[in-house]
Every structure is written in structure tokens, then in C-alpha cells.
């Protein structure tokens, strides 16, 4: 798929990933370990991952398998010991910490299990926050934030603070916030972990619907099997390696999504 490299004027030209038709997410030969006392614990060794533009991939694995670590490496929050991570044609492992932060603010959205809304900001102000961080929030951005609130069914709650919203409502605000700055990629870490089944289903539906409408690549780390029917790819993380699971209909959904994303 074509994936153009968009960079902020404040960011030095990054190292380009090889090829003009790179997947939206590409991880090559990734290794990461942490020291625990006198022991070096390997999380990944030679991990490979490729996700096409506009695809929805679900990342599954037991607690401690490294799902959150992988999301942090993909976003540039953390750096691998070896290997490369690329978003579109931009290789994040070739950027400085400041450059990775600026790239992340412009091109990557996050949805967290704990919602991570700012308690002193209203629902609308929480959605406007990434727009302000990525360069400003004028009238056009304000209108977009309000449209997103309508899209997640919370148009009437624009002035409500997080403590006045239910868990499901807070997560829907978080979904809108993650998509506010039109990111190339949205990473979601257990987005339904604090929600009951029905509410989790609603949030997954909103998240996948909005991401597909905008052509955003979506990678969701979860234990929730309710995400599987929505996915184009289901990836199992075990022993520091990824293996794609054969889920009914997933390959066909992925093929259709790839065709729609092609120029």
C-alpha cells in the first residue's frame, strides 16, 4: 500500500523506511529485554509484524506476554534493543526522542484501558487536547471535535467533566480523542478491560466504525474475544513471537480492506 510520509515542519527529516509501498505498520527483527535483579528477561527476540493501511489487527496474549510493551515500541514511547519500527515510510527507530514525540502527536492515537481523560477538562476539551498539542485548535478543529462527540453519541455531553460520565461514556470520549488529529495509526491497550460486556461491545463498534470510516490502521491489544469478529487479522503473542490465527472471515475482511485502501 502507498503510505506517504507526513512530518511536522518542526521535525528534522526522518530516516525513510525501505520501499515506496510499505505497510502502514512494519516491525522487523525486533528485540527487547529488561533487567530484573541479576536476570535479563527477554520480551521479544526477532519479532516481525506487518499491518496494511486501514487494516484492523487484534493482538492477543496472556498477561505479561508483552502486548503493552509492543504498543510502546510501535509508538516510539520506548526503544527496542535491536530491530526497526516503521509507521508508513517513517522509521521511528531512526528518530531522536524529541522527533519521536512530535511524530507521535501528529500521527498516532491512543485508547487506554483506564480512559486517561484529564479530570479538569470537559469531554470536548479532552478531545481538543491532541489537536492543541499537534499545532493548534481553531474553529475548524473545534468543529471536528464536536462532530466526533456526535459520532460517539455524546453530542449533548460536550460540557460534562469525566466524573459525570459513565465508564462507557468516558471510553467513547477517549475513542474520539484518539481520532481527533486524524492519525495514521490508532493503538488501543485493553480498551474494554474496565467495561461490562455490552458496553465493551458498543465501544468496540464505535472504535472500529470510526477507524474504518477514516481509513485509520487499528491495532488493539486485548483479552476480549468480542473484538475478534471485527478484526481483519488476529495475532497471538507468545514466547516473544507473533503468529496469525485463522479466524473465520478475517482473511476475507482483510482482503477487502486492502483493496479499498489501495490508491
Please give a structural write-up.
A six-stranded mixed β-sheet has the order 6-7-8-3-9-10, with helices on both faces. Strands 2-1-4-5 form a four-stranded antiparallel β-sheet, covered by helices on one side. It is built from seven helices and ten strands. The protein has one domain (25-261): P-loop containing nucleotide triphosphate hydrolases (Rossmann fold), CATH 3.40.50.300. Helix 3 packs across helix 4 and helix 4 crosses helix 5 (167-179). The longest helix is centred in the C-terminal third of the chain and has 18 residues, at 197-214. With 263 residues, the chain is of the alpha/beta class. The protein has helices spanning 67-75, 97-107, 123-133, 139-151, 167-179, 197-214, 250-261, and strands at 25-36, 39-51, 56-60, 82-87, 90-91, 108-112, 185-189, 217-221, 233-238, 241-245. 33% of the residues lie in helices and 24% in strands.
In short:
With 263 residues, the chain is α/β, with parallel strands linked by helices. Helix content is 33%, strand content 24%. It has a six-stranded mixed sheet, with helices on both faces.
Amino acid at each position: 500500500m502507498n503510505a506517504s510520509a507526513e512530518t511536522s515542519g518542526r521535525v528534522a527529516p526522518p530516516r525513510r523506511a525501505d520501499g515506496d509501498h510499505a505497510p502502514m505498520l512494519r516491525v522487523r527483527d525486533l528485540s527487547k529485554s529488561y533487567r530484573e535483579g541479576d536476570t535479563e528477561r527477554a520480551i521479544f527476540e526477532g519479532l516481525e509484524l506487518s499491518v496494511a493501511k486501514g487494516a484492523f489487527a487484534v493482538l492477543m496474549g496472556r498477561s505479561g506476554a508483552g502486548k503493552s510493551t509492543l504498543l510502546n515500541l510501535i509508538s516510539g514511547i520506548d526503544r527496542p534493543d535491536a530491530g526497526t519500527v516503521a509507521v508508513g515510510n517513517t522509521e521511528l527507530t531512526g528518530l531522536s526522542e524529541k522527533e519521536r514525540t512530535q511524530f507521535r502527536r501528529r500521527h498516532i492515537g491512543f485508547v487506554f484501558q483506564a480512559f486517561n481523560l484529564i479530570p479538569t477538562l470537559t469531554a470536548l476539551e479532552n478531545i481538543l487536547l491532541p489537536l492543541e498539542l499537534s499545532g493548534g485548535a481553531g474553529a475548524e478543529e473545534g468543529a471536528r471535535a464536536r462532530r466526533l462527540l456526535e459520532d460517539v453519541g455524546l453530542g449533548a455531553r460536550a460540557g460534562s467533566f469525566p466524573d459525570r460520565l459513565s465508564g462507557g461514556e468516558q471510553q467513547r470520549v477517549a475513542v474520539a480523542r484518539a481520532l481527533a488529529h486524524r492519525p495514521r495509526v490508532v493503538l488501543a491497550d485493553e480498551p474494554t478491560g474496565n467495561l461490562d460486556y455490552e458496553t465493551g461491545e458498543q465501544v468496540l463498534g464505535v472504535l472500529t466504525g470510526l477507524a474504518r470510516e477514516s481509513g485509520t490502521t487499528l491495532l488493539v491489544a486485548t483479552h476480549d474475544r468480542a473484538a475478534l469478529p471485527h478484526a481483519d487479522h488476529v495475532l497471538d503473542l507468545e514466547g516473544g513471537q507473533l503468529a496469525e490465527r485463522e479466524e473465520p472471515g478475517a482473511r476475507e475482511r482483510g482482503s477487502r480492506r486492502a483493496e479499498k485502501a489501495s490508491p
